[in-house]
Amino acid sequence: MQRLIIQGGNKLSGEVCVQGAKNSALPLLAGCVLADGETKLHNCPALSDVFAACRILSCIGCKCEYDKGSITVNSAGADKSFVPDELMREMRSSIVFLGAVLGRTGECRLSFPGGCELGPRPIDMHISALRQMGVKISEEYGVLDCSCAKGLKGAKINLSFPSVGATENIMLAAVLAEGDTVIYNAAREPEISDLAGFLNACGAKVSGAGTGTVFISGVDKLHGCEYSVMPDRIVTATLMGAAAATGGELSLLGARVGDVRAVIPVFEQAGCQVYPYEDRIFISAKKTLRAVKTIRTMPYPGFPTDAQAIVMAVLTKARGTSVIVENIFENRYRHVDELVRMGADIKAEGKVAVIEGVKNLYGASVRATDLRGGAALAVAALSAEGETSLTNIRLIDRGYENIEDTFSRLGGKIKRVNY
Ligand code: EPZ
Q1: pTM of the predicted model, to two decimals?
Q2: Residue-range domains of the chain with CATH
Q3: Which atom of ligand 1 approaches the CA of 328 most closely?
């Protein structure tokens, strides 16, 4: 087992390259199944979730090679359609392979992805959309048996909620389907636009990505391509949080200001200076932080739920009272108890968390409860007095490349130890 030992108190400073986006690399890897021959994805982060996706690709017959941030996928042998349970459970987003495998083979057998980390992770929208596209789906004992002997058919699909995963799954199923598909109330996250860009580079016909209505005209085949994954907007928000929490200043190379337009004002309200440039974002936190107006997590372009824990960690030492309303997931405050162990004054009930700024946080033994909650604890520990031991960090490794290396290069006192 490993843990992070963090000695708080240092101001972070310097410049750092923002890693490729986990939540784009995963659907793009699934999309490689649909492209004949070889596809090369650049700027892929070295994350356990990315390697788990490569294991799923191998399981269905693709060849995957990871080399210094690029993944080459050869789908020539992709003729299998079963994803074993242990692979499905490794990450929630494994469900996005369903649309791709159906598009490639016309059938797919996989178990429900894991749940409970952030609350139940239903896939009802995925299933009802695929059924509208002609897929027969039986659900028994947690296993989905899916087939579309006559091939996938284009459909007009209304999502009751702009689900990111469901939008991605439908796009992946629709690009090789017969006829046209329209997704109404589609997710508008930048990862959707990245997936559309990748699929179109493979010869697909996708338009409207990034808006609430996505149009896909089915084509007969897709070819391989070379494509670069977008920068990770949640890692960008995490690094901004680390600068704010430690009173430092960072230059985030490769960060795209358009992806964090809802996050920047929160840091500015808290008292940070944020200067967006063409190819980077500069943030400086020289002043004592102050509480901000109520933050409500919303689908993009609203405030991202994935940045909620990070910003909460920053606000624990902001003078005054801040309120966060978590509207996307039912159980996304599990990091609160851990922050309270460090001296934070937070009350969470239902969707609402009230944060009373305290003068100091103190190092403690804390445990990552989920990916972004774990990153939030690391940010809090960097700003705390004394030493923090942070365990269960495999959850952090799912989304952050070498988090200790990133923070120590910027002046943080943090190391990974076995125990
Ligand atoms: C994606 O998850 C991201 N994961 C999540 O990031 C992110 O928090 C989420 O989108 C929202 O932005 C990846 O991209 C791999 P949803 P996803 O479908 O697709 C409910 C991280 O930390 N819902 O938009 O699962 C669902 O329960 C992760 O990187 C249904 O009810 O999110 C949730 O309450 C965490 N039925 C809400 O919609 C469905 O069929 C949003 O889910 C699908 C979703």
Answers
A1: 0.97
A2: 2-18+231-418 (3.65.10.10), 22-228 (3.65.10.10)
A3: 34
